[in-house]
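quick one, 462 residues, struct below
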Amino acid sequence: MELSEEPQSKDEIDLKESQNDANHDFVFGEITEEGPNYRNVGVLGTVILMMKTQIGLGVLAIPTTFDALGIVPGVICLCAIASIMTWSNYVIGTFKLNHREVYSIDDAGALIFGPIGRAVLSVSFCLYWIFVSGSGILGISIGLNAVSTHGTCTAVFSVVAAIFGFTLSSVRTLGRITWLAWVGLPCILIAVLTVTIAVSLQDRPASAPQTDSPWVSDYKVVGSPSFTTGITAICNLVFAFSGTPGFFAIISEMRDPRKYTFALLLCQAGVTGVYIIVGCIVYYYCGSYVSSPALGSAGGDVKKIAYGFALPGLIVTTTICSHIPAKFIFVHILRGSRHLNKNTPTHWITWISCTLGVAVIAYIIASTVPVFNSLVALIGALLGPLMCFQPMGCMWLYDNWSKEKRHARFWLVKASWSIFVVVLGCFLTVSGTYGSVVGIMDAYKASGGSAAFSCADNSNST
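---
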């Protein structure tokens, strides 16, 4: 008679599953010393990476968003977008745990919609992150112009930014990039707080009329924007929280994906708090004379100091936003082959080609749409909802549409919410893209507007 094994506790089962996960991955295959360790991101590292995909470029456009909407509607819309994004991010975690073979949003699209879903979301994912990387390159060029007082042609600074992005994003794993996020996040926060404190102490913002008479901020409690201005401001908020599609890649490289939700809640609470505090204070003291990016609002030496601190943060943002699409392309090219997790010549040639290609395209985008606020709005409208709204609603419905689950408590409410998120995403995509395109055309027509591949100083835009 065979002796039965003693029943294992939940902690023992969890430990055994974690050990198995550490040695084998459904996406990356066997994790060995012969190649990079793709599963090496801890909980704190996850929080930092999540925050860094959001706090960086998005926060610099929050004050101008409040200028369009007014402080009260701005805060309400910000909290609404934050709530929707937090739900979307949560769905990513549950979907990944239910389908361990899913690496990115296109894998989810393939499960739900087949090859067409994979194709649409693959292209959209790559375009989205490359556009965000382009906005990072634009932000770095603005920072270099500000610090050097336009020391050379802006096109040269854009090339330098692209080189930084290519070099650092070529680090192969997010686990090794995490230390960069630990440096970049505090830098961008210090820069933003420096400007926030400076504008509260100064007599007036840098772009306000410099007269002897006292200056009073013309901030609006409730704004009255046109449709295009209002929808563009909403899309800026979408962009500020739209690190969402990158969270698939982050959870895929976590040591223990089951701790993802805890890390997510810490991240979203911190990001939302920073956005509200910075947006309200900077806009309250600057009013309609707030700059975009917001770091230029204080002007003079404060502007140089702020961008001096911000540059490492902007470089790290560009690094992460270049790494994610490059890794996406790399994994899809080599998935299932020994070259994915072995240090072979094919492995290195493919990887460097991916990071270089992303950097070149991002540089072209940054040089073609050289108006920061317009580029941010275009990304948030054209690609943001498609990456953060519709797929997540469909993912929840896919996992919870069976007859058994329809009897669950509040199922109808949850399903209705998921459908609402899909519809809202479609509306923002169409209307937001229209509004952002109109904004870009107006920026080109305006006097002093930057031209594509221009040498003009881009650090004085408002």
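The two ends are 82 Å apart (CA to CA).
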